Amino acid sequence: MTDKSKIVVLGAGESGVGAAFLAQQQGYDVFVSDFGAIADHYKQQLIDWNIRFEEKQHTEEEILTAIEVIKSPGIPEKAPIIKKTKEKGIPVISEIEFAGRYTEAKIIGITGSNGKTTTTSLTYHILKDAGLNVGLAGNIGKSFAYQVATEKFDLYVLELSSFMLDDMYRFKVDIAILLNITPDHLDRYDYKMENYAASKFRITQNQTNNDYFIYCADDPETIKVMAGRRIEAQLLPFSIEKKIEPGAYLEQDNIVINTHKQNFQMSITDLALQGKHNIYNSMASGIAAKVLELRNPSIRDSMSNFKNIEHRLESVGKISGISFINDSKATNVNSTWYALESMTTDVILILGGVDKGNDYSMLKDLVKQKVRAIVCLGKDNKRIHDAFEDVVEVIVNTYSAEEAVQVSYHLAKKGDTVLLSPACASFDLFKNYEDRGNQFKQAVREL
Asked: Which residues form the Mur ligase C-terminal domain (predicted)?
């Protein structure tokens, strides 16, 4: 028997706790259940708000009487409690889907295998600098649901992972940005690229011809999927390989954006974010800004003074002429490819962690050109050794950030860069990629 007023939230992280607060505000009886331990500050919030919760278990009698279940993006479809919930016919949705019901704000949604946090942060920075009343949420910042409950923004910039998109059904994005599709999280998609790509394209569902779809015309997977489906939204592609109108392209060293009577140009040398991948990110953000008809001087200023997010190609400093860069957020091979592609010195590369079925072959050419030694940071480094032993003479195993930094420092020469860009998840030795990045930075400071 379902309770018509009861909503269950599975997972008590940022998104779950925010969803619980919004559900309570909307008059629902709310129960929060987390199979793991709940962090103290989230537990305190639930206590303060008088929301019932449990941790380290899922009580089925409680969960299976809900009218709806709001699921944390980290919980896979194959989890027993999700299977049982769906068998009972109880809808399972994301925090984003739920929160979207209670806001009239315009939504810019950004997804892609790589660059989405940078592009989301840059887009938000451009809009906020232009004086718009804008919120930042999704995979970044404060929970979307909590902001919907407590703020009155006219516009949100949302970073949307494929896991979030999987549990979104009626939610509509006014301006959708798809940066790229490269192999990632394939363990969640039956190791089928087409399943993962279809998940990314859910960002276009429910769009009408009054909406916009901004995408990379140079990304083969994106183009492949588009050939087989109808997109209702107005298309605004971007490319650094060919001239595109309407959309964005590179002319000599200038980004050129043309969107229905809106024109913009900016030299790539003036961009705060350097590297080929960041030209793409800047184009995507720039198109969104021009769709909103922001003034060119304001966009230029924002694109030139933007500070990148922590743990993404973050400069930690120089010691004895050796540069240290923290790119701990690079949890897949493609992110590491982008990091290496932007390096202009010889590199000591720190790789490793929880391997999600990585194909390291795409890194081989860059590693051959730029990497003098690989320092593995993970419990099981066999696949890294197998992939690179014929390309790099020195491959060393380490089991802590401190050890990895010290070994890298001794292997590096003056003028080299020590780059932490692991291409793997961090859960074998660290709490998360932030913890890995912070430990790396601390170890650099202690040299």
From this structure: 311-424
Is 103 labelled a binding residue? no
Ligand-binding site membership of 114 (annotated): yes
- Choosing from 76, 93, 110, the residue where a domain stops is 93
**1 found inside a domain:** no
Annotated ligand binding at 116? The verdict is yes
- CA-CA distances (angstroms) from residue 124 to 92, 103, 129, 427, 446? 29, 18, 8, 29, 35
281 annotated as a binding-site residue = no
The whole-model pTM stands at: 0.80
Assigned domain for 417 exists: yes
For residue 84, what are the domain limits?
A: 6-93
Provide the residue count of the chain: 447
Cis peptide before 246 (omega within 30 of 0): yes
pLDDT digits (tens, 9 = 90+) for 263-278: 999 999 999 888 788 8
Q: How far apart are CA 340 and CA 223, in angstroms?
A: 25
Ligand-binding site membership of 27 (annotated): no
Where a domain ends, among 93, 121, 138? 93
Q: Is 138 annotated as a binding residue?
A: no
**Is 106 among the annotated ligand-binding positions?**
no
Structural domain count, the chain: 3
